Amino acid sequence: MWAYLERLWHRLGSPRHFYDLAGWWLPWLAVSSLLLLGVGITWGLLFAPPDYQQGHSFRIIYIHVPAASLALTGYFAMAVAGVVVLVWRMKMAEVVLQSIAVPGAVMCALALFTGALWGKPTWGTYWFWDARITSMLILLFLYLGVMALGSAIASPVLAARATAVLAIVGAVNIPIIKYSVEWWNTLHQPATFKLTEKPAMAPEMYWPLLVCALGFYLFFAFVVVLRVRNAVLEREAGARWVRELAGEGR
Amino acid sequence: MSANDLLLRAEGLTALRDERVLFRGLSVSVAAGEVLRVEGPNGAGKTTLLRILCGLDQDCEGRIAWPRAEAAGRPWREELLWLGHLPGLKSTLTAEENLAWLCALRGRAPRRPLREALAMVGLAGFEDLPAGALSAGQKRRVALARLHLEDAPLWVLDEPFTAIDRAGVEALEQLLAAHAQAGGAVVFTTHHAPAITSRSLLLGKAA
Amino acid sequence: MSANDLLLRAEGLTALRDERVLFRGLSVSVAAGEVLRVEGPNGAGKTTLLRILCGLDQDCEGRIAWPRAEAAGRPWREELLWLGHLPGLKSTLTAEENLAWLCALRGRAPRRPLREALAMVGLAGFEDLPAGALSAGQKRRVALARLHLEDAPLWVLDEPFTAIDRAGVEALEQLLAAHAQAGGAVVFTTHHAPAITSRSLLLGKAA
Amino acid sequence: MHPVRRTRLLLVLGALALVGVAVGLTTWALRENMNAFYSPADVVDGKAPVDRRIRVGGLVVAGSVQRGGEGLHVSFDLTDGKGTFTVNYDGILPDLFREGQGILATGTLAADGRFTAEEVLAKHDENYMPPEIKEAMEKGGHPGAKAGATP
Amino acid sequence: MSAFAALFRRDLALAWRARGDLVNPLGFFVIVVSLFPLGMSPDPALLARIGPGLVWVAALLAVLLSLENLFRSDRDDGALEQLLVSSAPLPLLALARVLAHVITVGVPLVLVSPLLALMLNIDGEPFGVLLSSLALGVPVLCMVGAIGAALTTGIARGGVLVALIVLPLYIPVLVFGAGAAYAAGLGLPFAGQLAILGALLALSVALAPFAIAGALRISGSQ
Amino acid sequence: MSAFAALFRRDLALAWRARGDLVNPLGFFVIVVSLFPLGMSPDPALLARIGPGLVWVAALLAVLLSLENLFRSDRDDGALEQLLVSSAPLPLLALARVLAHVITVGVPLVLVSPLLALMLNIDGEPFGVLLSSLALGVPVLCMVGAIGAALTTGIARGGVLVALIVLPLYIPVLVFGAGAAYAAGLGLPFAGQLAILGALLALSVALAPFAIAGALRISGSQ
Ligand code: HEM
Ligand SMILES: Nc1ncnc2c1ncn2[C@@H]1O[C@H](COP(=O)(O)OP(=O)(O)OP(=O)(O)O)[C@@H](O)[C@H]1O
Ligand SMILES: Nc1ncnc2c1ncn2[C@@H]1O[C@H](COP(=O)(O)OP(=O)(O)OP(=O)(O)O)[C@@H](O)[C@H]1O
Ligand SMILES: [Mg+2]
Ligand SMILES: [Mg+2]
Is the ipTM reported for this complex over the cut 0.90? Predict the structure, then answer.
């Protein structure tokens, strides 16, 4: 088991093997994510019951929560990849780090947008400077900073290392976003889903949410893997296996 | 050559720039007493190689070891003195002040008074002029004065003769030779043809 | 030598820097067909003199006249091509794009296609690389390609051989000689000892 | 130890000590009131400052909402179980504003104890359920089920 | 330790040699604060209310502008290379560099802010709180900003990129700094905000040197 | 004319080559505007009132930051020397340089400002007036700022000095620009302010190139 994991790790670490492996995953990711998204969203939007307080407007949850969660997870993953880049100098981590930035920023923007949209009917305002919302806006800016820095440096190796530093420094923001609703008296609601307790939500409402969230995660993984594969091809353009691949294509 | 004499050993160095291979799987080692000249036409990768050896360019593959420093439990950077294209002088500080902070980075007292070193490179009388007011050659001479002050065994010099006049070139050649004789080592590049080289490393034919 | 052959005549040039006199009452004239080498040790004032002749340094006394340009009613800057220590290339533009804008400053079409000039200075294949990615010598070569492109009669070159490899130095020497032969003139400095000088101007003994 | 190694060690130890200081200060600060937020009990006990823009939060007391006078004027009582006071507001209330619901109001407390809100936001909680279940819960009073709004 | 002292002394000497430049961030600070009344309505009540926020934003921008040259001049003249090949621990050298910057840029900003506060009619307790929040916060701005400056020194036109990278990290400092003064102005408790600023200061002094050192090694390779 | 076109084309190409950098002043602009609600009280009514002033000050600072590199990079790589020895009239070359800057930095700023105005709840007539005042004023800021940038290129640490030289010249532009939008917000006449901005634009395009050329010759001697 351990030996298998170690072998997998090494194969993932090599661009060429990653390319092949990821090529295998892609169709599975695409099909399963689209399936789950389709089921989850129709279930959530059409069949889940309305909320006793918010009525139908609560259905934004099926986009808002997965997007917000992915924005946080994406940045966290970027910071982890950053540590791997700086400590172990792993090539694949460099590519992964930079491939997450754009989809992560999109998710962050989506969470902000749906949150603002949702805020009007529930709170009575689109925007409010509370700790959760402000720190989420900062997260978007951090994503933009990572993207700008990465594109300003020509050498891919150095670009990855520089963005790794920024991603790690910015990661202090993640626990702040996550726990702001507990530490401060925010307008944003506290967590509905906790690890230790039953969710404060009726099952017929949270099952579609779980399906949606899983669909979002898989779709995100799909996009990231696709971007990683493209970036690998671009970076290894000089390598023999890529040239052979290109020859095959012709 | 005993292992203890090996200052620097680099193996499997590969540098790609813009998809062009400057060198692949290059191995270099420098032992005490050697003067190694890195040769090659413009764009061959001489500067790149020197910067990689000094740990200044991380955009490469390969292993670099400093056997003697490792054996002695010293940080390898203590063994190294690097002079690149840019002399590293702050233009508003005087020549003497510049030498003071540059030498202090090594954390050990300089081998002789700073003014003496300045005089040795022909800058007596220019000690208190801001470095920005010096001519191109004078600036390089200030940087070269560090060779008289610091006690690193390995000197890595990128085109040290640039902008130096004929008398200065001669003096510098003698200095390099003397340093090697005294158990140090020099790695350098130049497009002149000095007589002091003990070994040459020829890089590709780029430009 | 007819008055028409006199490209540049400077009289009574005096430059003081930090209360030191670099030169006082210096007169220089450059006629068509001449290769004038400004000589002197580091810090003698060679760069200063060249910049003064080109109107780049306004901190001096004296008169500078351009007899031929004046006679022809042309702006004197049309007669001049200046290459200083810095090659004047934008690092994000390619070699070819850099030549394009530099040559266009003269307002006349270049003498030959830009790529041809780049090939002549040994940069075939490097036309589309951003200038920032070139080596020190390659950058200078791009700047020197202008000598093949522009048609100014007077070239003023400050240490043009710096960072150029041996083959490059030879080619450049021939180019300067040919330019003088064809009725142009060159004023330059160098610490090498080229065989092409027709006249020397020795500046003081500073450093 | 080689002097450079020693310096490096001291550097890391110093950094760790400072991180400790940071953690201590943060935990202390989190116990402080940092966003000018006061509960109805604070208001009643006179802990909330007068004539300042402050934020108050609590539950709207059932049956206390009075619309009237001219225009959009509305007043209602706000409670947290330990104290109750009246909020006055001119403006459109959010859709989710209901009796028994948690709200967050920004406004000023006058010296006579009258609170005038500039903004009333519905602070809704983390519980989601279909209306039928809510009704059933209220009728049956399930002992295990979580009660409605507790801000 | 002697490399630390040498670099620190060098930077103080550089600042002293160009002491005219020391006035620059200060001048900027003062001018920006006086710009706002011009750009907005010059209504004293309004100004007094937004005063602390104004001073804080202006201080932040002044620090931001001063960052541009923090490592770039060292890179342009080759001094950065010499720092990178030094055997002294690089985080220590980074700390010396930033400490000198705090002393030559940050401290004067804090010292001149009472004047601006008086200009904007801030006095009493809010005055004291504004000053203490700046005293704690401006060094944080310098430390954090130095990370951004170090990351962008290798890039040709880094000027505005620093701002883009550093501003998100500045927002918490601004929120707590200006928040403390604002709360004091309303007679509300402010100790929590100041404590958080103190925590940010400790954290940034502890960790920023390592981040700066890492960033410099990367920028040096470019 | 061909030297003018060549330099203009060169600068557009430079901007395009580093087109990521084009976003920087924009990002700065957007971030600064969103900083203020954080630093001050996030009170919508207050924000709407000071909105036009905010947008104007932020635009001014964005232009200011972008000036740093206007001629400095040309000086650092020797391109400035080549401009100075060119036989084309230097004011013409200066005009080309600044025009390219207006197009690559100024125009995007003006184009993105509607978004910020909406963020700050500015609409109706003040919205239109704010945009026209920016469209007239930002080019003035670029032209005038270029004079300061040219004067300080010869100086090592010019960064904040530019700001110091240029800000006083910016004040009239700011007063009339923000004033127009503010007046429109109060339903007062604003055509006079816009006309003055137009006059400033004409004046700066007419005279700035000569001032810049003179300043560059001086900076080049240093
Ligand atoms: C612009 C405004 C908003 C922003 C930036 C925002 C941001 C976030 C973030 C960052 C999370 C955390 C996701 C995670 O922990 O994985 C979250 C969760 C959530 N948000 Fe929002 N939100 C906004 C508005 C709203 C509104 C108006 C509502 C509805 C009243 C809402 C309801 C929720 C819910 C139900 C969750 C899931 C809580 C849980 O993790 O248990 N949000 N939001
Ligand atoms: N800006 C300045 N301020 C003060 N002194 C200066 C300035 N520029 C040059 N000098 C002084 O003028 C002298 C001549 O400098 P210049 O650069 O002309 O010498 P050079 O002959 O070109 O020397 P090199 O062979 O080293 O290039 C130097 O000694 C220098 O100290
Ligand atoms: N940052 C970079 N990005 C891309 N390519 C680069 C970079 N730096 C150097 N190169 C390329 O690497 C090659 C070698 O450059 P290097 O400076 O090492 O040459 P060199 O041998 O020192 O030449 P010279 O004799 O001209 O100094 C050059 O052809 C250049 O195009
Ligand atoms: Mg080289
Ligand atoms: Mg010279």
Answer: no
